[in-house]
Protein backbone atom coordinates (compact mmCIF):
# COMPACT_ATOMS: atom_id res chain seq x y z
CA UNK A 1 0.00 0.00 0.00
CA UNK A 2 1.37 3.40 -1.02
CA UNK A 3 0.08 5.49 1.84
CA UNK A 4 2.11 8.63 1.28
CA UNK A 5 1.81 10.12 -2.18
CA UNK A 6 0.14 13.56 -2.45
CA UNK A 7 0.39 16.35 0.10
CA UNK A 8 -2.95 17.78 1.29
CA UNK A 9 -3.67 20.72 3.59
CA UNK A 10 -7.26 19.57 4.02
CA UNK A 11 -8.76 19.50 7.52
CA UNK A 12 -11.12 16.59 8.05
CA UNK A 13 -14.53 17.21 9.61
CA UNK A 14 -16.20 15.33 12.43
CA UNK A 15 -18.68 12.86 10.97
CA UNK A 16 -20.43 9.62 11.75
CA UNK A 17 -18.82 7.67 8.91
CA UNK A 18 -15.41 7.72 7.27
CA UNK A 19 -15.15 6.40 3.70
CA UNK A 20 -11.79 5.56 2.14
CA UNK A 21 -11.91 6.74 -1.47
CA UNK A 22 -8.82 6.83 -3.71
CA UNK A 23 -10.84 8.08 -6.70
CA UNK A 24 -11.87 11.45 -5.21
CA UNK A 25 -15.36 10.83 -6.64
CA UNK A 26 -16.76 10.96 -3.10
CA UNK A 27 -19.33 8.22 -3.57
CA UNK A 28 -21.19 8.06 -0.26
CA UNK A 29 -23.34 4.99 -1.13
CA UNK A 30 -26.35 7.09 -0.12
CA UNK A 31 -25.18 7.56 3.49
CA UNK A 32 -25.35 10.90 5.26
CA UNK A 33 -22.81 12.41 7.71
CA UNK A 34 -19.81 11.16 5.74
CA UNK A 35 -16.19 12.28 5.61
CA UNK A 36 -13.77 11.01 2.95
CA UNK A 37 -10.09 10.19 3.03
CA UNK A 38 -7.92 9.47 0.00
CA UNK A 39 -5.19 6.86 0.77
CA UNK A 40 -3.01 8.39 -1.94
CA UNK A 41 -2.72 11.65 0.01
CA UNK A 42 -0.76 12.78 3.05
CA UNK A 43 -2.95 14.94 5.29
CA UNK A 44 -0.25 17.28 6.56
CA UNK A 45 -1.96 18.46 9.75
CA UNK A 46 -2.31 14.91 11.09
CA UNK A 47 1.20 13.95 10.02
CA UNK A 48 2.59 16.90 12.00
CA UNK A 49 0.53 15.92 15.05
CA UNK A 50 1.78 12.35 14.78
CA UNK A 51 5.39 13.52 14.43
CA UNK A 52 5.15 15.74 17.53
CA UNK A 53 3.86 12.79 19.55
CA UNK A 54 6.46 10.20 18.64
CA UNK A 55 9.52 11.91 17.14
CA UNK A 56 11.70 10.76 20.05
CA UNK A 57 10.31 7.27 20.35
CA UNK A 58 11.93 3.99 19.38
CA UNK A 59 10.88 2.47 16.01
CA UNK A 60 9.83 5.89 14.69
CA UNK A 61 9.24 4.75 11.09
CA UNK A 62 6.96 1.91 12.17
CA UNK A 63 4.93 4.02 14.58
CA UNK A 64 4.54 7.18 12.50
CA UNK A 65 1.94 5.64 10.15
CA UNK A 66 -0.13 4.15 12.96
CA UNK A 67 -0.07 7.38 14.97
CA UNK A 68 -0.94 9.37 11.84
CA UNK A 69 -4.04 7.22 11.27
CA UNK A 70 -4.99 7.48 14.95
CA UNK A 71 -4.92 11.27 14.63
CA UNK A 72 -7.29 11.03 11.65
CA UNK A 73 -9.68 8.80 13.61
CA UNK A 74 -9.55 11.24 16.54
CA UNK A 75 -10.28 14.22 14.28
CA UNK A 76 -13.21 12.65 12.43
CA UNK A 77 -14.49 11.02 15.62
CA UNK A 78 -16.03 8.26 13.54
CA UNK A 79 -17.87 5.15 14.67
CA UNK A 80 -17.55 3.26 11.39
CA UNK A 81 -15.06 3.12 8.51
CA UNK A 82 -15.87 1.89 5.00
CA UNK A 83 -13.26 0.99 2.38
CA UNK A 84 -12.60 -1.35 -0.51
CA UNK A 85 -10.55 -4.54 -0.43
CA UNK A 86 -7.78 -3.32 -2.76
CA UNK A 87 -5.97 -0.30 -1.27
CA UNK A 88 -5.51 -1.97 2.14
CA UNK A 89 -6.01 1.13 4.30
CA UNK A 90 -9.07 -0.27 6.05
CA UNK A 91 -6.87 -2.99 7.56
CA UNK A 92 -4.50 -0.33 8.91
CA UNK A 93 -7.36 1.56 10.55
CA UNK A 94 -8.56 -1.65 12.20
CA UNK A 95 -5.05 -2.22 13.58
CA UNK A 96 -5.09 1.30 15.04
CA UNK A 97 -8.32 0.84 16.94
CA UNK A 98 -9.88 -2.59 17.13
CA UNK A 99 -13.05 -1.14 18.68
CA UNK A 100 -13.97 0.78 15.51
CA UNK A 101 -16.41 -1.02 13.22
CA UNK A 102 -15.07 -1.60 9.71
CA UNK A 103 -16.97 -2.51 6.55
CA UNK A 104 -14.88 -3.66 3.62
CA UNK A 105 -16.47 -3.91 0.18
CA UNK A 106 -15.38 -5.77 -2.93
CA UNK A 107 -13.84 -3.55 -5.56
CA UNK A 108 -13.85 -5.95 -8.54
CA UNK A 109 -14.12 -9.63 -9.38
CA UNK A 110 -10.97 -11.75 -9.17
CA UNK A 111 -9.61 -14.46 -11.42
CA UNK A 112 -8.78 -17.91 -10.09
CA UNK A 113 -5.05 -17.29 -10.55
CA UNK A 114 -5.22 -14.25 -8.23
CA UNK A 115 -6.58 -16.13 -5.21
CA UNK A 116 -3.18 -17.05 -3.76
CA UNK A 117 -2.04 -13.42 -3.86
CA UNK A 118 -5.12 -12.33 -1.95
CA UNK A 119 -4.54 -15.12 0.55
CA UNK A 120 -1.00 -13.86 1.15
CA UNK A 121 -2.00 -10.18 1.36
CA UNK A 122 -4.90 -10.85 3.76
CA UNK A 123 -2.89 -12.96 6.19
CA UNK A 124 -3.53 -11.80 9.79
CA UNK A 125 -5.74 -8.95 8.56
CA UNK A 126 -9.06 -8.10 10.23
CA UNK A 127 -12.33 -6.33 9.40
CA UNK A 128 -15.80 -6.69 10.87
CA UNK A 129 -17.84 -7.02 7.69
CA UNK A 130 -17.07 -7.80 4.06
CA UNK A 131 -19.61 -6.91 1.35
CA UNK A 132 -19.00 -9.22 -1.60
CA UNK A 133 -20.48 -9.66 -5.07
CA UNK A 134 -21.69 -13.24 -4.81
CA UNK A 135 -21.34 -16.73 -3.36
CA UNK A 136 -18.18 -17.40 -5.37
CA UNK A 137 -16.25 -14.59 -3.73
CA UNK A 138 -17.64 -15.32 -0.27
CA UNK A 139 -16.42 -18.92 -0.62
CA UNK A 140 -13.00 -17.70 -1.78
CA UNK A 141 -12.43 -15.08 0.90
CA UNK A 142 -13.88 -16.97 3.87
CA UNK A 143 -10.95 -19.39 3.70
CA UNK A 144 -8.46 -16.72 4.76
CA UNK A 145 -10.28 -13.81 6.38
CA UNK A 146 -12.51 -14.04 9.42
CA UNK A 147 -15.47 -11.64 9.39
CA UNK A 148 -19.20 -11.48 8.69
CA UNK A 149 -19.90 -11.70 4.95
CA UNK A 150 -22.82 -9.99 3.24
CA UNK A 151 -23.90 -10.68 -0.33
CA UNK A 152 -24.49 -7.14 -1.60
CA UNK A 153 -23.19 -7.09 -5.16
CA UNK A 154 -21.15 -4.02 -6.13
CA UNK A 155 -21.82 -1.17 -3.68
CA UNK A 156 -20.58 1.39 -6.21
CA UNK A 157 -22.78 0.12 -9.03
CA UNK A 158 -25.78 -0.32 -6.69
CA UNK A 159 -25.43 3.36 -5.85
CA UNK A 160 -24.73 4.64 -9.39
CA UNK A 161 -27.25 2.48 -11.25
CA UNK A 162 -29.64 4.30 -13.57
CA UNK A 163 -32.85 2.56 -14.52
CA UNK A 164 -32.88 1.64 -18.24
CA UNK A 165 -34.55 4.04 -20.64
CA UNK A 166 -37.18 2.11 -22.66
CA UNK A 167 -36.37 4.29 -25.70
CA UNK A 168 -32.92 2.97 -26.67
CA UNK A 169 -31.11 5.67 -28.60
CA UNK A 170 -27.89 3.62 -28.73
CA UNK A 171 -27.88 0.31 -30.59
CA UNK A 172 -24.47 -0.94 -29.44
CA UNK A 173 -22.30 0.52 -26.69
CA UNK A 174 -18.69 -0.65 -26.50
CA UNK A 175 -16.87 -0.20 -23.18
CA UNK A 176 -13.40 1.14 -23.91
CA UNK A 177 -10.42 -1.00 -22.97
CA UNK A 178 -7.95 1.81 -23.64
CA UNK A 179 -5.19 1.97 -21.05
CA UNK A 180 -1.78 3.60 -20.97
CA UNK A 181 -0.10 0.24 -20.38
CA UNK A 182 -2.05 -2.28 -22.47
CA UNK A 183 -0.07 -5.17 -23.94
CA UNK A 184 0.43 -5.24 -27.71
CA UNK A 185 -1.53 -8.51 -27.94
CA UNK A 186 -4.53 -7.06 -26.13
CA UNK A 187 -4.46 -3.94 -28.31
CA UNK A 188 -4.46 -6.05 -31.48
CA UNK A 189 -7.43 -8.11 -30.27
CA UNK A 190 -9.38 -4.97 -29.42
CA UNK A 191 -8.64 -3.53 -32.85
CA UNK A 192 -9.86 -6.72 -34.54
CA UNK A 193 -13.02 -6.77 -32.47
CA UNK A 194 -13.94 -3.13 -33.06
CA UNK A 195 -13.25 -3.24 -36.80
CA UNK A 196 -15.54 -6.28 -37.04
CA UNK A 197 -18.24 -4.66 -34.90
CA UNK A 198 -18.02 -1.53 -37.04
CA UNK A 199 -18.52 -3.61 -40.22
CA UNK A 200 -21.52 -5.29 -38.62
CA UNK A 201 -23.07 -1.95 -37.59
CA UNK A 202 -22.62 -0.50 -41.08
CA UNK A 203 -24.24 -3.57 -42.67
CA UNK A 204 -27.18 -3.54 -40.23
CA UNK A 205 -27.45 0.27 -40.10
CA UNK A 206 -26.85 0.35 -36.33
CA UNK A 207 -25.28 3.09 -34.21
CA UNK A 208 -22.03 2.28 -32.40
CA UNK A 209 -21.02 4.30 -29.35
CA UNK A 210 -17.83 3.97 -27.32
CA UNK A 211 -17.82 4.75 -23.59
CA UNK A 212 -14.41 6.30 -23.00
CA UNK A 213 -12.31 5.35 -19.99
CA UNK A 214 -11.01 8.92 -19.83
CA UNK A 215 -14.48 10.05 -18.70
CA UNK A 216 -13.48 8.67 -15.30
CA UNK A 217 -11.03 10.94 -13.47
CA UNK A 218 -9.64 8.06 -11.39
CA UNK A 219 -8.43 6.25 -14.52
CA UNK A 220 -5.98 9.11 -15.22
CA UNK A 221 -6.24 8.64 -18.99
CA UNK A 222 -5.77 11.48 -21.48
CA UNK A 223 -8.97 11.85 -23.51
CA UNK A 224 -7.04 13.05 -26.56
CA UNK A 225 -4.87 9.92 -26.52
CA UNK A 226 -7.94 7.71 -26.22
CA UNK A 227 -9.75 9.49 -29.07
CA UNK A 228 -6.61 9.29 -31.21
CA UNK A 229 -6.47 5.51 -30.71
CA UNK A 230 -10.09 4.88 -31.73
CA UNK A 231 -10.03 7.45 -34.54
CA UNK A 232 -6.98 5.64 -35.89
CA UNK A 233 -9.08 2.51 -36.46
CA UNK A 234 -11.08 4.36 -39.13
CA UNK A 235 -14.39 3.18 -37.70
CA UNK A 236 -17.70 5.03 -37.48
CA UNK A 237 -18.47 5.59 -33.82
CA UNK A 238 -20.13 8.16 -31.62
CA UNK A 239 -18.91 9.54 -28.32
CA UNK A 240 -20.58 11.44 -25.51
CA UNK A 241 -18.91 12.87 -22.45
CA UNK A 242 -21.26 10.92 -20.19
CA UNK A 243 -20.69 8.17 -17.66
CA UNK A 244 -20.71 4.55 -18.78
CA UNK A 245 -23.67 3.96 -16.45
CA UNK A 246 -25.76 6.66 -18.14
CA UNK A 247 -24.80 5.51 -21.64
CA UNK A 248 -25.59 1.88 -20.76
CA UNK A 249 -29.08 2.88 -19.57
CA UNK A 250 -29.76 4.17 -23.10
CA UNK A 251 -28.26 1.17 -24.94
CA UNK A 252 -29.83 -1.91 -26.47
CA UNK A 253 -26.62 -3.95 -26.12
CA UNK A 254 -23.39 -3.34 -24.20
CA UNK A 255 -20.14 -5.03 -25.29
CA UNK A 256 -17.13 -5.36 -23.03
CA UNK A 257 -13.87 -7.31 -22.78
CA UNK A 258 -13.01 -7.97 -19.14
CA UNK A 259 -14.53 -4.90 -17.53
CA UNK A 260 -16.04 -5.28 -14.08
CA UNK A 261 -18.83 -3.09 -15.43
CA UNK A 262 -20.12 -5.92 -17.63
CA UNK A 263 -20.73 -8.19 -14.66
CA UNK A 264 -22.40 -5.35 -12.78
CA UNK A 265 -24.71 -4.65 -15.73
CA UNK A 266 -25.56 -8.33 -16.03
CA UNK A 267 -26.55 -8.35 -12.34
CA UNK A 268 -29.12 -5.63 -13.06
CA UNK A 269 -30.45 -7.64 -16.04
CA UNK A 270 -28.96 -5.43 -18.77
CA UNK A 271 -28.10 -7.02 -22.11
CA UNK A 272 -24.33 -7.64 -22.32
CA UNK A 273 -21.93 -9.45 -24.67
CA UNK A 274 -18.57 -10.43 -23.17
CA UNK A 275 -15.61 -10.64 -25.54
CA UNK A 276 -13.35 -12.64 -23.25
CA UNK A 277 -10.47 -12.49 -25.75
CA UNK A 278 -7.86 -12.22 -22.99
CA UNK A 279 -8.43 -15.98 -22.69
CA UNK A 280 -6.91 -16.24 -26.16
CA UNK A 281 -3.70 -14.70 -24.82
CA UNK A 282 -3.64 -16.77 -21.62
CA UNK A 283 -6.27 -19.18 -20.30
CA UNK A 284 -5.75 -17.79 -16.77
CA UNK A 285 -7.87 -14.82 -17.89
CA UNK A 286 -10.94 -16.99 -18.39
CA UNK A 287 -13.97 -15.09 -17.09
CA UNK A 288 -14.92 -17.08 -13.97
CA UNK A 289 -18.62 -16.27 -14.19
CA UNK A 290 -19.45 -18.41 -17.21
CA UNK A 291 -19.41 -21.99 -18.41
CA UNK A 292 -17.42 -22.71 -21.58
CA UNK A 293 -20.58 -22.63 -23.70
CA UNK A 294 -22.50 -19.38 -23.40
CA UNK A 295 -24.68 -17.31 -25.71
CA UNK A 296 -23.25 -14.10 -24.28
CA UNK A 297 -19.52 -14.91 -24.17
CA UNK A 298 -16.90 -15.35 -26.91
CA UNK A 299 -13.41 -16.45 -25.84
CA UNK A 300 -11.61 -16.88 -29.17
CA UNK A 301 -11.97 -14.25 -31.88
CA UNK A 302 -13.94 -15.51 -34.86
CA UNK A 303 -15.81 -12.95 -36.93
CA UNK A 304 -18.59 -15.32 -38.04
CA UNK A 305 -19.32 -16.47 -34.48
CA UNK A 306 -19.17 -12.85 -33.30
CA UNK A 307 -21.77 -11.88 -35.90
CA UNK A 308 -23.99 -14.79 -34.89
CA UNK A 309 -23.97 -13.58 -31.31
CA UNK A 310 -24.60 -9.98 -32.39
CA UNK A 311 -27.54 -11.13 -34.54
CA UNK A 312 -29.02 -12.92 -31.55
CA UNK A 313 -28.46 -10.25 -28.92
CA UNK A 314 -29.39 -7.16 -30.94
CA UNK A 315 -32.72 -8.69 -31.99
CA UNK A 316 -34.09 -10.32 -28.85
CA UNK A 317 -36.44 -8.30 -26.66
CA UNK A 318 -36.36 -7.88 -22.89
CA UNK A 319 -38.53 -10.91 -22.16
CA UNK A 320 -36.46 -13.13 -24.47
CA UNK A 321 -33.28 -11.87 -22.79
CA UNK A 322 -34.60 -12.88 -19.39
CA UNK A 323 -35.15 -16.50 -20.49
CA UNK A 324 -32.01 -16.81 -22.66
CA UNK A 325 -29.54 -19.47 -21.52
CA UNK A 326 -26.55 -17.31 -20.60
CA UNK A 327 -24.35 -20.09 -19.24
CA UNK A 328 -23.85 -18.31 -15.91
CA UNK A 329 -22.03 -20.16 -13.12
CA UNK A 330 -22.43 -17.53 -10.40
CA UNK A 331 -25.18 -14.99 -10.07
CA UNK A 332 -24.01 -11.56 -8.92
CA UNK A 333 -26.29 -9.81 -6.44
CA UNK A 334 -27.86 -6.48 -7.37
CA UNK A 335 -29.13 -4.42 -4.43
CA UNK A 336 -30.53 -1.18 -5.82
CA UNK A 337 -29.47 1.79 -3.68
CA UNK A 338 -27.70 -0.49 -1.17
CA UNK A 339 -30.54 -1.42 1.18
CA UNK A 340 -28.42 -4.24 2.64
CA UNK A 341 -25.64 -1.78 3.52
CA UNK A 342 -28.15 0.61 5.14
CA UNK A 343 -29.57 -2.19 7.29
CA UNK A 344 -26.06 -3.17 8.33
CA UNK A 345 -25.09 0.42 9.22
CA UNK A 346 -28.27 0.88 11.25
CA UNK A 347 -27.53 -2.17 13.40
CA UNK A 348 -23.78 -1.57 13.77
Question: What distinguishing features does this structure have?
Answer:
alpha/beta, 348 residues, 16% strand, 14 helices, Rossmann fold, 2 domains, six-stranded parallel β-sheet, five-stranded parallel β-sheet, single chain
Structure description:
It is a single chain. Helices cover 38% and strands 16% of the residues. It is α/β, with parallel strands linked by helices. It folds into two domains: 160 residues, Rossmann fold; 154 residues, Rossmann fold, CATH 3.40.50. Helix 2 packs across helix 3 and helix 7 crosses helix 12.
CATH architecture assignment name of the largest domain: 3-Layer(aba) Sandwich
| Whole-number mean pLDDT | 92
Q: Give unreliable regions as ranges.
A: none
N-to-C terminal Cα separation, in Å?
28 Å
CATH fold-type name of the largest domain: Rossmann fold
Question: What's the arrangement of secondary structure elements?
Answer:
Layout: E1 6-8, E2 17-20, E3 34-37, E4 41-43, H1 44-54, H2 60-76, E5 80-84, H3 89-96, E6 101-105, H4 115-121, E7 129-132, H5 135-141, E8 148-151, H6 155-160, E9 170-175, H7 184-204, E10 208-211, H8 223-231, H9 244-249, E11 251-256, H10 260-267, E12 272-275, H11 278-281, E13 297-298, H12 303-315, H13 318-323, H14 339-347
Parallel strand pairs: 1-4, 2-3, 2-5, 5-6, 6-7, 7-8, 9-10, 9-11, 11-12, 12-13
Amino acid sequence: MKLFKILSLEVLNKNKFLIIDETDQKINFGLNEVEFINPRKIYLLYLIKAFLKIHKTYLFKKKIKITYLKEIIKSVNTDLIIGNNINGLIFKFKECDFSIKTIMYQHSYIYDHEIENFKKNYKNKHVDYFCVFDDRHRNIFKDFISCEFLLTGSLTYNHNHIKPNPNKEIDILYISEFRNNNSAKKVELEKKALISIDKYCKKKNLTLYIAFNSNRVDKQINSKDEALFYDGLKINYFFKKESSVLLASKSNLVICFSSNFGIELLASKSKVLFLNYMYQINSKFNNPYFYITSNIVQRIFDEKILYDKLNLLTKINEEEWKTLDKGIKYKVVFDYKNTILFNLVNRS
